[in-house]
Prior knowledge:
Layout (H helix, E strand, L loop, with lengths): L4 H4 L5 H4 L23 H8 L3 E5 L4 H11 L5 E6 L2 H14 L6 E4 L5 H11 L3 E4 L6 H6 L1 H21 L4 E7 L8 H18 L4 E7 L1 E2 L6 H10 L4 E3 L4 E2 L1 E2 L1 H11 L8 E6 L5 E2 H12 L8 E3 L18 E4 L5 E5 L9 H13 L4 H14 L2
Parallel strand pairs: 1-2, 1-4, 2-3, 4-5, 5-6, 6-11, 7-10, 8-13
Antiparallel strand pairs: 9-12, 11-15, 14-15
Amino acid sequence: MPGTTGAIVAGEGARDAGDLLPEARIDWEGLLDRPPVPVLDDVLGAAFTGRRVLITGAGGSLGRALTACVARYAPAALTLVDSHEPSLFALRGRLLEEQADLRPLFRLTDVRNRRRVAGLFAATRPEVVYHLAAYKHVPWAEEDPVEYVEANLGGGRAVAEEAAAAGVARLVYPSTDKAVNPPSLYGATKRIMEAQLREVAAGSAMRVTAARFVNVLGSQGSAGVTFARQIAAGQPLTLIPGMTRYWIAPSHGTLLLAYAAGPAFAEPFSVVLPEARPAAPVRTILERVWRALRPEGADPPIVAIEPRPGERLAEELTGAGEALEPSPYPGVLEVQGVAPAPPGRPVARGIGDLLAAAGEGDPAELKARTLAWARGLV
């Protein structure tokens, strides 16, 4: 059993990024002025030991670290799902090298294929499901709303509904602070999925926890990694003046997901966040990455840029009527005041309408319609 956060995030770091990538040289865990989140072995053992666990998006940054964490607590079965063949192949090699006695099941599956999702649940009978598979880049969603609606909403609805139908006991879903008063198509898809999961939980025996993530240092496509690669390439560092974000270390992100499956979250639907307050300027992270890679260098060369489509200068953690309270688990806050699910299945029907509109091929209209609906959801 692990006793340190270093063990929890096994699988992240230099071996994932490759020795030639600059981000592999940075201690992302030490970049924040914040103590590491403690590991409660009894909680994680209760969540995973002897249980059948399935993880979609297992080959991504979050998925790799979560897989390593779950595997250390002797699950009865571990099913790892991803639609990206190279990522799943790399995960297979790494995991089996580290734990030769582990017998995980690897499945190449696109979660938008409901028939495949239903068959996978029927074959593996998971008790705990992590649905991590999604597209996450904010500006790209603005450019390609059809793909994001189909993947994030179509795939999300398929997993949620088939999990409930298969008798899954717990589903954990990574949402985002961008789902609060969403300014972007990406945030809108996450807001809608929170509502869809609340609806599914209200109509089934499945317990659902949505974990609103903030910025995870060192994750694929994150600001810190972008700065590291700009430094390595000898380029100026691009910065949006005045932008702030909430930041967590990689191990904190892994433990947020792991604790989200803990027995303390017994309500049909719960929302949690990492304790990441206060927000810090993006410039602060830029300067720390610069010092990590250029400890003897001059001040970093910075070029000011405008916010990209869908971005806002400061993120929000809670919506109207919501408040943050401590949870029983370290580093995890619980959102109180989450609105109850409306009667019937209006969210499922609304997603169906959006998927039909996505097939009609008018991206601008689809984006406007998705944003308007998401902003009106309570």
